[in-house]
Structure formats: C-alpha cells, structure tokens
Amino acid sequence: MKASTKANNEGEVAAAFQGTVRRLGARFTGYDTIAGAGTNSCVLHYLTNDHDIEKGSVMLLDAGAEVGYYTADVTRTWPVSGKFSKEQKAIYDLVLKAQNAAIDLVKPGRKHHEGYDAAMRVLSDGLVDLGILTGDKESVYKSAAYSRFSMHGISHWIGLDVHDTGNYQQEPGKRGGSRVLEAGMALTVEPGIYIPKDARDIDAKWRGIGVRIEDVLLVTPDGNRNLSDKLPRTVESLEAVLNQRD
Ligand code: GLY
Ligand code: MN
Ligand code: MN
C-alpha cells in the first residue's frame, strides 16, 4: 500500500506485492494480481497493470499469496494520496457497510445467497442516499438498477484454487436452492461499486472511483473467522498505514 504513494505506474504496486510475499516465504501467487488505479479500478479482472497512476486516484489491489498449495484472495482499495476524498470515502464506507452486512450472515445454517441479498440491499439504498441512483428505494432495489455499478457475485469457495470447486446449490445437479453454510467451509466476501470515467450521465465527482473490499472467511461452529482481518479495512486504519513513517 505504501509503495503506491510513491509509485508512478500500477505495475510497481503489483511488483511490490509480489516482492513482499516472496520475501515472506510464498513462491507463488494464487492468481494473476490485479492492480488498477483510477478508472482501471472499475475493470474486473484487470490484468495489464501498466497504466500510470494519476494523482489523487484510488488504487484497487486484488492479490493473494499461495502457501502450501492454498491461496488467499484479498482486495483492498485505498487513495494513493494517503487520504480519501469526500466522494472516495462515501463510496468506500458504503461498500464496507455492504461487506459487513454479508459477513454477518456467514454462519452455519445460513444460505450462501443471503449475504449477496443483504449486501445488494445496502448498496442499492446507499446509492440512492448519495444521489447516484434516483427513485424510491424499494423500486430501485427491485429493478436491480444497482447492478450497473455492482455487476458481479460477491462470494465464491476458496482453498486449493482461488475459485475453488464445490456446488453453490444445495442439491448437486438441481438448480435453485442456495447451499446452506456449514462449519469448515471457506469463502470470500467481496462486494464492490464501480463508477468508470465514461459514466457521463453521473456527476463527474463520482467518476473514476472503483472500490472492492474482499476478505476470506472461514465458517466456524458459532459464526465465522475473517482469515484476512490483519489487513486494515476501515478508512481510518487504511489512512494510518498509508501515512506511517518507514
Ligand atoms: N481475484 C478474483 C476474485 O476475486 O474472484
Ligand atoms: Mn474473489
Ligand atoms: Mn479477488
């Protein structure tokens, strides 16, 4: 994260991550690192990581070390200036609220899909509160208008592979009926909002901001354990790390 505050190009941030995990003992990453700044933070599975970083932009890093054949899959988004702008903070806090709502539903007995529904409700209502979507909250949610800015699923199994094998439906081979979570399962929770630079009908102050927050959760008998919770995840803790002296 700190490397991004001095970097000119996205590739330097991807390289800093890869260098760091090698130094800490991992030989591989579990998938190709995604390091996108500014409007590239809105590109899902952005892989070129080769654009210059504009001052004041957000940086989205989706990356995971592989150790002992198991991979992580973690995303953090932060401002390269070291301080979130008002709009960056508003989007960030909304995605964080959606992620927390989904994480609260990671527990035995809950269905895998419930977290998605809870997160989309938070994002949809929040986009209306910010004036990015207009209309009454119920109809905006029902029409799935939020999907223009939040267009991917928010959870997959993880383990030996980043998108690990396993059914998402309760009865293999039969469609419908989301899988019920059990202790010992490992999954990601990764909502995001993406407002690319070319979203010309949206107020310019929001454009070029993409935020995803992704953690790896282990379902435990009582609820869940966030396996990536040592990483800063709030505006305050991210800003603190970015501004730490070497
Ligand atoms: N890194 C790909 C994903 O988050 O699923
Ligand atoms: Mn993922
Ligand atoms: Mn990821």
TrEMBL record:
Residues 9-220 form the Peptidase M24 domain. It holds the Pfam family Peptidase_M24. Its EC number is 3.4.11.9. CDD domains: Prolidase (cd01087). InterPro entries: Creatinase/aminopeptidase-like, Pept_M24, Peptidase_M24B_aminopep-P_CS, X-Pro_dipept-like. Its cofactor is Mn(2+). It catalyses: Release of any N-terminal amino acid, including proline, that is linked to proline, even from a dipeptide or tripeptide. Keywords: Hydrolase, Manganese, Metal-binding, Metalloprotease, Protease. PANTHER family: XAA-PRO AMINOPEPTIDASE 3 (PTHR43226:SF4). Belongs to the peptidase M24B family. This is Xaa-Pro aminopeptidase.
